[in-house]
Amino acid sequence: MLTILRPENDADRPAARWSPIYHGLRDAIVGHRLAPGTKLPEDELASIYSVSRTVIRAALQALAHDRLVRLEPNRGAFVAQPSPKEAREVFEARALIEPKVAALAAEAAGPGDVMLLRRHLEKEHEARDEGRDSEAILLSARFHVGVAEIADHSVLTELVRDLVSHSSLIIALYWKRRDTTCECHAHQALVDAIEAGEANQAAALMNSHLVDLLSGLDLARASNKAESLANILR
Fold it and tell me: How many CA atoms lie within 13 A of 42 on its CB side?
């Protein structure tokens, strides 16, 4: 099962009441429904989720720990807003790590792993074809972490999970074409290489895919979206 984009050590954290809020906000951020720079007022979120501000604060602190939210003294919480320099660095790091991860996955994958990846791709294709863009974006991000999990390298998997969530913020802020999120044929080719056990081919395809993702960004500008938190999160 692709257990992806989870908070670090989530199962060990005692304050379980904030977990649904964490996951709801995280998916809204990674799925591009909450734009980078969006203010996240504790009182409004408490009203939306019908919980106390203390619970909201715990969820926001967990998101800040995962670098999806920025906490500013006397100003509150905001969806993180990566700079162009940070954007380039994130994709440079992915280009260093993920080709190796793809090669390891090709060496380690069994029939069940490939079946899960193909099933995941079907859901990704359906979401994109039906115009469910936020869901398609989230599934595209999860695909990359799923490949890392098949590679069975815990340190690299956590690095990929962190970098992928940051990439979703970067794409939300700087994308210049709709297919920037991940072209389906690129994922399909990767799965084919993984199934065939072609480690070098999987690494080359992953590298090409990441270069293409970066080329779909316009790091000279940022987009802004305005919609109420209640409409987005409900």
Answer: 17
- What's the pLDDT tens digit per position in 64-116? 988 889 999 989 999 998 899 999 999 999 999 999 999 999 999 999 999 99
Using an 8 Å Cβ cutoff, are 125 and 202 in contact? no
Quick one: three-class SS letters along 47-87? HHHCCCHHHHHHHHHHHHHCCCEEEECCCEEEECCCCHHHH
Whether domain 84-215 has CATH 3.40.50.150 = no
* pLDDT(152) > 80: yes
| C-alpha distance from residue 152 to each of 32, 137, 138, 157, 208 (Å) | 29, 24, 22, 8, 23
CATH class of the structural domain 10-81+224-233: mainly alpha
Q: Which tokens is 152 given? A: 């069975």
